[in-house]
Amino acid sequence: MRTMGQLGNDLYTGKTSFPFVGRRRLWFVIATVLVIGSILVPFVKGVEFSIEFTGGSKFTVSGVDGIDQSIATDTLESLVPDAEVKVTTVGDDSIQVETDQLSDDQTQAVRSALAEAYGVSEDEVTASFIGPTWGADVTRQSLWGLAIFLALTFLILALYFRTWKMSAAAIIGLIDVLVITIGVYALAGIAISPAAVIGFLTVLAYSLYDTTVVFDKIRENTRADGENSGRTFGESVNLAVNQTLVRSINTTVVAVLPTGAILFIGAVWLGAQTLTDISLSIFVGTIVAAYSTLFVAAPLYSLFREGEKGIRSRDERARQTRAKAEIPA
Predict the structure, then answer these.
(1) Model-level pTM?
(2) From CA 204, how far away is CA 200, in angstroms rounded?
């Protein structure tokens, strides 16, 4: 069995090659199915947004002896029967309750009832509320942040690589990462919070880094091969992706392991919702980003360029040279 070092050497020299470009139609079909599925999930199951986006009242009961969520649910339903209630555990001895925005009298009544139901003093029950205006501001700023990030990314990549086609392929890859990650969030039934949005932007930055490294190698290969290359443009792109494959895998594993550890500690051990939100988005997004760079962005860039007159002429010369030398394509 080959070691990782041997595999990396074989991939770099072209002795071993995975058909990222050659079988791009299959990868595009798979990517399309994943994106469509991720878009449909919110329509079927719905997307939950945290109280920071929707607005409402939040109660935290600390120092409880037993974490029974049904007690909080029954208490809220008896006082505000028409309100939507979401109850979660925080650590080993705390309960968090989120509901619609309540009046001051309702808030005080709920505090007293929760304290009595869980057998703690009212001082152990904290109450806060977030107005709908603040939630709308958070939503608007998040969308503006995403739009500005994508616009700057497109511009900077176009200037760096000297071609808008490489920039467009990278942006489509980023959108692919974002849509699938949000789809996983919706499928898991986890509310999207500001911490999750931070995680999404972090993932986009990682995906951009991974794509830039691969694209830089693609540019190096396609330039070095020149007009009289024995490889077609698509083959040069495929070689570049294979040459960076081991690096992409190693980088992804190094990023996923600590993020997975934080996710486990936050969700299972500490019950910290903020840690869970940000680590889940980064954990899922990092894996999707590695897949998107290799199977979507790079093959898509090859597709964008292969229709150019100069590229078609170069590919035809490469095929004619092979035919004359009786080298199979």
Answers:
(1) 0.79
(2) 6
The whole-angstrom separation of Cα 172 and Cα 295 is 12
Element (DSSP H or E) covering residue 8: helix 4-13
**194-219 per-position pLDDT tens digit:** 888 888 888 888 888 899 999 999 98
**What secondary structure does DSSP assign to 194-248, as a single string?**
HHHHHHHHHHHHHHHHHHHHHHHHHHHHHHHH-TT-SS-HHHHHHHHHHHTHHHH
The encoded tokens of residue 3 equal 């070691």
First to last CA, the chain: 28
251 CA to centre of own chain: 16
Query: Residues 11-40: pLDDT tens digits?
Result: 777 778 889 998 999 999 999 999 999 999
Strand ranges (E), the chain:
56-62, 85-90, 94-99, 125-130
Which residue did the predictor score with more confidence, 305 or 137?
305
Around Cβ 213, how many Cβ atoms within 10 Å? 15
CA 47 – CA 188 distance, rounded (Å): 10
